[in-house]
Amino acid sequence: ASTGQKNDALEAIALEILAQREMLMIENEKDMVLAKEKNIAEAMLDRLQFTPARFDGMVEGLRQVASLKDPVGEITDLAFQPNGIQVGKMRVPLGVIGIIYESRPNVTIDAASLCLKSGNASILRGGSESIHSNRALASCIQSGLSMAKLPQNVVQLVPMTDRAAVGELITMKDYVDIIVPRGGDSL
């Protein structure tokens, strides 16, 4: 995807989050109710809950990533070799990045935006406590991708909450190029 398409997608996702704020709040409340029923620790509940500041942070984060220089194709460390050939390093996408993280729904947006900007596809697996919020955010992401004329499957969310899905994801070496575990309770 071109830099313009990636930036357009990031802005479209930001606009979709703003447009779907009420729906996102409803889905997050479902997660909050279930988490309270499970007696989740207060600190975890705080990280799970959408607040006006978190909404603003997600939107601002998308826009900040869009404003970053596109890293794809950047060449550094150019040097001439004794035989006259010039050699350097070029930044290229890694491919498909699987990201496993705890129950912070805003990480869904953070991870997707960084992968998109760097030209990578992503498979996201958030914590089970945030499944409703993550599904709703994934819907916003896919709408934004579609508006920017990018394939919706560039960012995918693992739709199930059981830990067996994580075990399966980390063994898919033919399909996933790198796994990034993020947070204390993600595995």
Question: Could you explain the architecture of this structure?
Answer:
This protein is α/β, with parallel strands linked by helices. The chain is built from 7 helices and 6 strands; from the N terminus they run ααααβββαβαβαβ. Strands 5-4-3-6 form a 4-stranded parallel beta sheet. The chain has a two-stranded antiparallel sheet with strand order 1-2. Strand 4, helix 6 and strand 5 form a beta-alpha-beta unit.
Total helical elements: 7
User: What gap, in angstroms, lies between the N and C termini?
Assistant: 32 Å
Q: Unreliable stretches, pLDDT < 50, 5 or more residues?
A: none
Largest sheet: 4 strands, parallel
Mean pLDDT: 92
Helix content: 40-55%
Provide the β-strand percentage band.
15-25%
Task: Please tell me how large the radius of gyration is.
Answer: 18 Å
Q: What's the overall geometry?
A: globular
The class by helix and strand makeup works out as: alpha/beta
Task: Provide the succession of SSEs.
Answer: HHHHEEEHEHEHE
In which order are the strands of the major sheet placed?
5-4-3-6
Number of strands: 6
